[in-house]
Amino acid sequence: MALAWALHADGQAPPKRLAFDGQILVLAWQGGNPGETVREYIPPGEKLESWTKLASIREYPKLDDPRAVAANLVRALKQQNPAAQSAMVENPATGEVIVDFVTWPADQKFVEFNLFKYARKPGGGLVAQQYALREYQDTTGFLRSLRPVRERLVGLMAKEGLRPAPE
Fold first, then answer.
1. Nearest residue to 55 via CA among 78, 73, 86, 30
2. For 58-104, what is each residue's pLDDT tens digit?
3. CATH assignment of 21-164, given 2.60.40, 1.10.260, 1.20.1250, 3.40.1000?
4. What is the domain partition of the chain in residue ranges?
5. pTM for the complete prediction?
6. Among 105, 96, 44, 101, which residue's Cα sits nearest to residue 69?
């Protein structure tokens, strides 16, 4: 299973580096609460306050319905940003659900494309893989050129997901 490393199935610690779309991202933050653990990865040299690419692994030990969690994400997005566009695709064979969306803060300091893949963990619980792109300068150009990038990244997330990168 491609996610074994993220799920601690082999008893090993989570990776310090991830790879996705030809990019290496390093562990920048980890934390959570009793219902969710989160590990966030960004390109080397970037800061959490100003990242341009971000990957995360989120684990939900008490949840078991990828579609319900994805739908909750879309609801929360619409409450926070009613103009945000989103799409949700479910793989009936695996039960995995992918959600992608574009959003921005009220001050429009940046625009962000997010991609989440939700899957059941063996033995119970869910895992979410997230990949996001953020643009601070040319937000119009970012949105104009997003369609082919979105299609490629959704396909890559569906096929491979996030991968551990060599140390």
1. 30
2. 999 999 999 999 999 999 999 999 999 999 999 999 999 999 999 99
3. 3.40.1000
4. 21-164
5. 0.92
6. 96
